[in-house]
Design brief:
By secondary structure, this protein is of the alpha/beta class. Helices cover about 45% and strands about 10% of the residues. The two termini are about 40 Å apart. The chain has a seven-stranded parallel sheet with strand order 3-2-1-4-5-6-7, with helices on both faces. A six-stranded parallel sheet has the order 10-9-8-11-12-13, with helices on both faces.
């Protein structure tokens, strides 16, 4: 982690050098590289005041604001026009679902959406419909001819017509930070902390940080420097769940014996990381050997070579599926829900609990690492948290054997989630957040403390659990098409010298060209 911190400091230093040379576009891209590195290689930091200050300086110096927004006279007491800003959206994952469910639920307002760095994936139709039905618009910035700075300027112009901005951005996205550097001429800004266990950018522009759980709220105040009056809690919004199939019918649809006891887990593949040679499914072998009618279904990981031994040892009673959108039949067939590990999946826990399933999660850490565990307002008092494999097996055995306990706990969980995360109950909490953001004095600039590494919990566990295998070449390549042409060419020549020209000519294309033309003419291009 100390080595990660030194690399991060070097990247921040390079960013500052480009700023001092007034090469603002390159500085912005290097800032994104630094943030992406800190996100994937934990540096003992959850935020960087120094990097945020550089981005604010870029926004203040590089973008001349001709807009005249007088918030004291033009801002309503409660917003009517809400602008959501996201880096990119996908058809799967809790992040995108939170966005479209928010818009679907909040019907009294017009909602528009800006996507800053949407890739080649299409915007989900359900999200397009939600925005259209609210009489809003969708803008995709990186489809426009331009650069990071011109896109940030366009975002600032779009936001001038909004009463309130909500940031749903990826941890490393620099465009909104640059766009909203001029706080006196920005609407109130809410930051949705959907990745609270990792480093992110946004503390320098966000008037209110919305946390989805208490552990994230505690960390935001202690480690990100978010003042208590700007730190609020808002549960994840869920669609009301109605069982369309009986448990027996759902099992039949999946080809399972109706007398089987189904343990279910659903999450993205990355959340089932193997730790110290022990796979996620290994933890369930003792239970599956003890109960021959027990079956474990895991939706998300797909084919995992290191899981094959456990599948064989349990006579195929571990069934694994690729990531998919149609998960309702699995929830309805399940008897018990077991959380992903070592990455928890709070959204999946809530969705499973909405179907009346008892929920079990693992947390082999102390209270100082509460951010690494599962916790949500609607789970308090009902989620079963265990510390080790022995306790895990004991708890699951109790749930397998005691049907009455299993069903009653599942029903209590369902009721608590409905009260907290569904419909009008959630809307009342959202309205309170809106009012708080609109009435709170705007965030003002403070002194910029020096970034300092922290070597205690939970930091010491994060590189082991969440660390990416990334290097500087990958970081540059990931952001290369955002760079000005001279920098793009310079780095491209280095890649060619190191790796050869094969399949690398496309890296010379700017980001906007890739989105508009590359997929259309790919078959005609010689690379």
């Amino acid at each position: 982690m100390e080595q990660n911190f030194e690399v991060f400091r070097s990247l921040v230093g390079q960013t500052r050098d480009f700023l001092q040379r007034r090469d603002y576009n390159t500085a912005a891209v290097y800032a994104q590289i630094a943030a992406l590195y800190a996100n994937g290689k934990h540096c003992g930091l959850f935020s960087s005041p120094e990097l945020e200050h550089i981005l604010l300086t870029i926004g203040q110096k590089a973008i001349r604001n001709k807009l005249d927004i007088n918030k004291s006279t033009s801002s309503p007491a409660t917003p009517k026009k809400v602008l959501h800003v996201a880096t990119s959206v996908m058809p799967i994952g809790g992040h995108s679902r939170m966005l479209w469910r928010w818009i679907q639920q909040d019907t009294e307002r017009s909602h528009s959406l800006v996507l800053t760095q949407q890739g080649l994936n299409k915007v989900p139709q359900i999200l397009r419909d939600a925005v259209n039905n609210s009489h809003g618009k969708i803008y995709i910035l990186n489809e426009r001819i331009g650069s990071v700075l011109s896109w940030a300027k366009h975002l600032r112009e779009i936001a001038a017509t909004a009463d309130l901005v909500v940031l749903h951005i990826h941890n490393y996205d620099v465009i909104p930070i640059i766009a909203f550097a001029n706080k006196e001429q920005s609407p109130p800004i809410i930051f949705l902390d959907h990745a609270d266990h990792l480093f992110w950018l946004g503390t320098g522009v966000s008037d209110v940080v919305v946390n989805l759980r208490m552990s994230g709220m505690h960390l935001a105040q202690k480690r990100r420097g978010i003042a208590s009056e700007r730190n609020v809690l808002l549960p994840i919004i869920l669609e009301p769940t109605h069982r369309m199939l009986s448990r027996t019918a759902a099992k039949q649809q999946l080809g399972l014996n109706e007398s089987s006891i189904v343990l279910l887990s659903i999450a993205r593949a990355v959340k089932y990381k193997t730790i110290d040679g022990i796979t996620y499914v290994d933890a369930h072998i003792p239970l599956l050997k003890q109960y021959e009618n027990a079956i474990l279904i895991v939706v998300g990981p797909g084919n995992r070579e290191d899981w094959s031994d456990a599948i064989q040892r349990t006579q195929g009673r571990i069934k694994v599926y690729e990531e998919r959108e149609d998960t309702a039949v699995f929830y309805q067939a399940a008897d018990i829900y077991v959380d992903s590990f070592p990455f928890v999946s709070n959204t999946s826990l809530l969705e499973a609990g909405s179907y009346g399933l008892p929920l079990v999660t693992r947390h082999p850490y102390s209270d100082a690492s509460e951010i690494l565990g599962a916790d949500m307002p609607g789970l308090t008092g009902n989620l079963i948290r265990v510390a080790d494999i022995d306790e895990y097996t004991t708890v699951l055995s109790h749930l397998v054997e005691d049907k009455e306990f299993r069903l009653s706990l599942g029903e209590e969980t369902r009721k608590k989630i409905a009260v907290t995360h569904w419909g009008d109950n959630w809307q009342r909490q959202l309205n309170d957040v809106y009012v708080h953001a609109m009435t709170l004095p705007s965030l003002t600039g403070n002194s910029v403390p020096k970034d300092q590494i922290f070597l205690g919990e939970p930091d010491v566990f994060l590189p082991h659990i969440y660390g990416w295998n990334i290097d500087f070449d990958w970081l540059i390549q990931f952001n290369l098409q955002l760079m000005p042409l001279n920098q793009r060419l310079r780095h491209w020549l280095k890649f060619v010298k190191k790796h050869g020209v094969r399949n690398r000519l496309s890296l010379l294309l700017p980001e906007w060209f890739k989105l508009n033309y590359y997929s259309r003419f790919r078959s005609l291009l010689p690379f």
